[in-house]
Fold:
Amino acid sequence: MELTIIGCTGSFPGPNSPASCYLLTADDADGRTWRVLLDLGSGALGTLQQHIDLTQIDAVLLTHLHADHCLDLCGLHVAIKWCPSGWPVPRIPVYGPQGTNERMALAYGLESDPGMTGEFDFAAWQTGRPVQVGPFTVTPSPANHPTDEAYALRVQTTDDDGTHTLAYSGDTDSCPGLVEAAGSADLFLCEAAFHEGRDEVRDVHLTGRRAGEAAAEANAARLVLTHLPIWNDPERSAAEAREVFSGELEVVVPGATYKV
Structure:
C-alpha cells in the first residue's frame, strides 16, 4: 500500500498544511485500485483534490470527531449532494465513532434524520473487530483522548510479498490500545503534538518521546511523526523520539508518500 500525506498539522490547519488527512492506496487481487482516507480534517478536502478526484474515494475512516480530524466531511457532503451532473458512484462508506452522522449533521445545520445518510453509508467502529474495505483490513483499538470515542487504527494489506501493516495513532496519549494497533507495524504514523517539558497535561496527546516509547514497545519498524501544531519544532519532536526508539524515524511533510 502507499501512504500520501494530505494534511498533517496538529489541532488546526497551518500555513503549509491542512489538519489531519492521509490517503491510502492499494490494489486488490483483480488489479482494481482502492483509495481510503484516514481522517478528513479541517482544510483537507481542497488539498486532497490535488491527488485524486473526489469520486475516487472508496471510504473515509475517522479516528474521532474533533474538527481537525473530521470536519471536511461536511464539504464532501456538499460535493456529493449538489454535484450538477449527479454523483456517479454509490454512497461513500464512513467508519467512525457512534453518532458520526448526528455530529456531522449538527456541524452543517441539518436535522439528524436523515442527516448526511443520503451521501454517506455510516458504520460505527467496534473495538477489536476488523472491517474490510477492498484490500484493506482495518482494526480499531481504543485510544486515550478526551472525547467520547477515539481510536487508533491498524491497516493491513496482503499480496505476493506477504502482509503489510500500517498503524495510525489518531489522537492519543500513551495507552495499551496504541501499542496493540502498532504491534510489529511496518510503518507507524504517530502523533506528537506535545513537547517534553512544555506540555505537562496528560491523557490528551503524545510527545515525541512517548511516541517513541510506544513504537519501541510495539516493535514497529518505522516511526513517522505527525500532527505537529504550528508552534512545535519538528527537530525537537524527532530528537525526543530518538532517545527511546532506535528504528527508522522521520517527521512527515505535506505531500510526502511512503510505500508500506
Remarks:
- The mean pLDDT is 98.
- The two ends are 5 Å apart (CA to CA).
- The first strand starts at residue 2 and ends at 7.
- DSSP finds seven helices and 14 strands in the chain.
